Amino acid sequence: MLLAACGTNEAKEESNTEGKSDETNYGEAVDYTITGIEPGAGITVTTEKAIEEYDNLSGWELEQSSTAAMVTELEEAISSESPIVVTGWNPHWMFAKFANLKYLEDPKGIYGDVEIIKSLARKGLKEDKPNAYKLIDQFEWSVEDMEGIMYEASESGKEVADVAKQWVEDNPDKTKPWTEGVEDVDGVEIELVSTPWDSERASANVVAEVLRQKGFHVTITPVDVAVMFEAVANGDGDATLAAWLPATHKDFYEKFKDDFVDLGANLEGAKIGLVVPDYMDIDSIEDLPAK
Description:
This protein is of the alpha/beta class. Helix content is 42%, strand content 20%. The chain has 2 domains: 9-112 and 273-287, Glycine betaine-binding periplasmic protein, domain 2 (D-Maltodextrin-Binding Protein, domain 2, 3-Layer(aba) Sandwich); 115-271, Dipeptide-binding Protein, domain 3, CATH 3.10.105. The strands form 3 sheets. Strands 3, 4, 5, 8 and 9 form a 5-stranded antiparallel β-sheet that branches. The radius of gyration is 23 Å and the shape is globular. Mean pLDDT is 91; it is low at 1-22.
């Protein structure tokens, strides 16, 4: 705060010092803790790298719990306008519910730029179950579609599977391109391997519903990210719709890339990073104070 009557440099310096002392130390305010989600999730692994790479994050800790717990802490912080730093990603319904969220800039590029979500299939799926392969290969949708299902499930308390089924019924124009050239079958079994993230629960259940309408018997198996890649690579699972690239799941993708078929993007415009409410007066990861 500047003193209007000050005319000397000494007075100005005193004023500036006083102003700085009034600024919030966001590190102390959040106990030098980033509120995260499940251990092993792609964003968890990437945030651990960010803590190592950013000198100012030395001494910070990543609190790992669950997506639901993270969102609960975020909601409580926003309701009291308290500082909080969370691991965030799009698509996610929290961006629809909380309009005042922002990503912190990432000068070192640890979190990458815009992400895509890819579909991967086990080798041999095209030959064994060509109609399932074709439908999964043709599946693509938008961030808005995915977030809409996630938000509806969150607000209504309904199961994601039920909301996804209703979305398929309400959007035949969007699902029709997925089934072009796909023949009906009689009970052919398909296993989709996914992660327990709300975003992947949305995509898996939407595709599962469309597959069921074509006569497939579909199982969705939620697992840790590493297990998801390994399952498709060794043929224990038929396909996944949940590979975030080029940054989030880079290590897992590189490890198994020779052992599965990359079907390309099913969603473009995804993003991950550190997220704060916009009432916090910081714009970059480098603005977070060192411990």
